[in-house]
Design a protein that fits this description.
The structure is a homodimer of 259-residue chains.
Chain A lengths: L13 H7 L12 H16 L6 H8 L5 H6 L2 H30 L6 H18 L7 H11 L3 H10 L1 H14 L5 H20 L1 H12 L6 H21 L5 H13 L1
Helix pairs in contact in A: 2-3, 2-7, 5-6, 6-7, 6-9, 6-12, 7-10, 11-12
Chain A binds a DNA duplex (30 and 30 nucleotides) through α4.
DNA sequence: TACAAAATCGAACAATTGTTTGAATCGTTC
DNA sequence: GAACGATTCAAACAATTGTTCGATTTTGTA
């Protein structure tokens, strides 16, 4: 299966890891073939997704022979599984860690939803600031991964992170007891789809950079607070909106009358 | 270009059109090859999208020779352009027509946003009820089209419907003057991405059917009102949410403290 | 330095893609 | 019924895909 080699590599710190574990560590000259393939794969995946990224494009970008991919990683799917999980495992781990911490210390009574949203997105913002982990590209990568249409990527994410996702769904349900399960499911669905496709698009990320620039003072924490200050109320507003208010119903019926 | 033959066909009423215009009208026996190809294309596009739908899959589904596509439509792209625009032209026309009617008669003062949202989605709901136009499949089709990742589809939609989209952006901006252009752009972006990918997914549409079932009385108009009664307040809530409330900011900073 | 394992390389593989070709068939018109 | 254009068909085309093979080179170790 594709998961056989998932645990023995950490990218992009691959070369260091090999040295740590006293692995063969041959081929120390310049960047090792494996590392360069992984970097090229990530770069091209961000732009084109899984299906549209060919092994020839990857090996050309990496300056490496075509056969190297199958030699080092077994198959295209195993290569991409490695690239995806190395990014997303750390992200989801950090998310759940934050959720644990907040559940232990108790949520803010009136702003639980905002806090849950912050919990989901803060880890991504922080990783996006870590240059070693790809900097800005991390958000693009995240968007691509969750928006990718290939069955392989969708199944990988759904199966591997099902437990973590369920934790958050459960937490939101507890924070919004007045919302029918039906409506909550729809709204969370909306919210996550929106985030993914937005992160993947270029202009939306520039917009987020603009939000970060409105921070008072320019510490990293202030920037995160600024972005979440725009994002969380917006999303929380959608989750909390009341359904079927009579004045709204009347307004909608006016539109129906014209159609 | 792909648009050469866009104007001379109307699907699915193709056979009738040919007769109307006194076209050759040969090959009247059974369903004409063209019509069957168009139907098969639409069916497979809904499930697999543009890239993953091969001409061989289409011609097999249609029970037609492989070469028929290039003979009747010129190329794969021209075929899909025809399928896409025949659906979306009518939709966008109806949307703008509704918008015109409401702008002329004046919006509800306090619920303009809800009305604008209803204006955007009501035409889709109505077309989805028209069995001749594909019934339920129309919503799947719509979701696929706007979520498709292929450059061809994205460019087609962006270029062809740029003017209509701008009309709605402008209307929302007028209805939400207190919202910075930056925030409005982000929120509309979110909203539309969310709608598309939600329509494309199977479970979300079952959910909408569930909402429709909550209607009092079961006329078509009541069902539309029920769906919009859940959808519009939810989306309006997200568009209207206030940014940077101090209590929310405090709650978010609590989360930052744990990270 | 010599040996063996690891890694790289060019080349070819089989499968799939959209498209084109030229002959065979069908339907209409004279 | 002959002739002509429109349509259908099987077959092949060229390009691209992921993968595999065998020979060659590189590398660490004895």
């Amino acid at each position: 299966m594709a998961f056989d080699m998932l645990s023995n590599l950490s990218f992009p710190a691959l070369k260091i890891r090999e040295r740590e574990f006293g692995k063969p560590a041959r081929n120390e000259g310049r960047a090792a073939t494996k590392t360069r393939i992984l970097a090229a794969t990530e770069k091209l995946f961000i732009v084109h997704g899984f299906d549209a990224t060919s092994l020839r494009a990857i090996t050309t970008e990496a300056g490496v022979n075509l056969a190297a991919v199958n030699y080092h990683f077994g198959s295209k799917e195993e290569l991409f599984a490695l690239v995806l999980t190395n990014r997303l495992d750390t992200l989801n781990l950090e998310r759940v860690r934050l959720l644990d911490a907040l559940e232990e210390n108790g949520f803010d009574a009136v702003n639980t939803v905002e806090q849950l949203i912050a919990t989901m997105f803060l880890p991504a913002l922080r990783l996006a600031r870590n240059v070693e982990r790809g900097g800005d590209d991390f958000l693009k990568f995240l968007g691509r991964a969750y928006a990718d249409s290939s069955p392989f990527v969708r199944n990988l994410l759904a199966e591997r992170y099902a437990a973590q996702n369920a934790r958050f769904v459960h937490a939101f349900a507890k924070a919004l007891p007045e919302l029918a399960a039906q409506d909550l499911s729809m709204r969370l669905h909306f919210m996550l789809d929106a985030i993914s496709s937005t992160l993947a698009s270029e202009d939306a990320r520039k917009l987020m950079a603009g939000l970060a620039a409105t921070a008072t003072g320019d510490s990293a924490a202030n920037e995160d607070a600024a972005v979440l200050g725009h994002l969380a109320p917006f999303l929380a507003g959608s989750l909390r909106a009341r359904v079927n208010q009579t004045s709204q119903q009347e307004a909608i019926r006016t539109v129906l009358a014209f159609a």
